[in-house]
Amino acid sequence: MQRQAIRRVGPASLSYLVFVIAILMAVNTIKVADRELLGPIFEPLSQDLNLNDLQLGLIRSATDATLVVGVIFFGLLADRWKRRNVIGAAVLCWSAITWVTGRVQNLGQLLSARAGMAFFQAAFTTSAYPMMGDLVPRRSRGVVMGLMGATFALGTVLALLVTGLLGTASWRRFFGIFGIPGLVLGVLIFVLVREPARGGAEDEVLDGGIYSGRFTWSALKQTLRIRSAWLVYLLDGCQGSTWWAFSFWAPAYLVRRQIAPNSDVAALALLPAILGFVTGTVLGGWLIDRLRRRTERSAIWVALLSTSAALVLSIVVFALTNLTAVLVAGFFLGLFGYLIMPAINVILYDVVPPETRSSATAADGVVMSTISALTGLAIGAISEYVGAQQGLAEGNLRVGFQGAVTVLLSGGIIVSLLLLRIAPRDMAALRKYVADRSHGG
Q1: What is the pLDDT of residues 385-419, one digit of tens each?
Q2: Which of 107, 125, 226, 251 could form a disulfide with 266 if both were Cys (CB 3.0 to 4.6 A apart)?
Q3: H/E element holding 132?
Q4: Enclosing domain of residue 393
């Protein structure tokens, strides 16, 4: 069934579609590894550059704040320019900056390098996901978005594996290790990837029609009025900030709670959770496509299941102090928590027109980056404050970390319930909108 559906995607062959998805997955894996490098090298980097929890939280927040600027710029650009070109140029730029980061000497240089990297990385999500939406029909997007979602976990595990196996003492070399492959991938995108027609994979266009919708400021204004889209932004902000917090703060948390003996073991201890992430996002995409045969709200139901189960499992994880028990619980936390990954873009592209999807994805990035920036700063600040009040030599990460995760996942549950009520009307409106702008070819 999935094979037949994919074969109908415009002029693209199945082999070409598989190739494009594979290369975009490779790019996103490297992108996430670049972004997540600070987590596993947290301790040696902070000691070498003399940084505390608040300063590391500031770096993370500055990175997310820069993403806000980047997603706005690249989102608008991608709706009006070839998305292939946007992705290729951005990959080359952020990979070069990643390589240079290995030479920083102080907080200011590190902050500037990470902010610059984040700016160009913002181009990928705002361009690649809408481009895939024009390659893959609505009924098959869950699986493809699930595969792309797996790259977030794969990128994190790649960073953890490489740093854990090589040792984190010489932390500077890792920025070169991850920067160079990105330069190669950027060149491959320019040479081998083609730009698909916007709206070419919509159900109303697949039987030979041509979609006539084009980006205009009026169309963007209408998109920004879609209530379901704003709820998706909030949902993505809740889930995304939760898992970025885990990948960034968990190694230090495990060491300080004496669950792991050192930072190298703590980094590798995240592998079961990341295996759960990979399994969960692929399973989530499969569930969405299977359940879509029964209900158009399938992605929303998967999101509700994900946030509810993740909240319960996060409480269990923070209550454990034995490393083996944490590893087991972490796997299930990752599995259920990442069911939501493919649901975000599936829901968004079910309510937003093809010609404004990059801008809509940019708005999603603005909301998620804002929430993530505030979360990173809050965790670091609360940790330092509570630790000082308790007379600890280091911050109390458990209070800030667990508190933020609980609030975010609870918010995700509330937003999912609202989407179940509001989204069907916006889905029907999109189908009519696309049909009105589709003409026989």
Answers
A1: 887 888 776 777 788 888 899 999 999 999 999 99
A2: 251
A3: helix 107-133
A4: 11-440
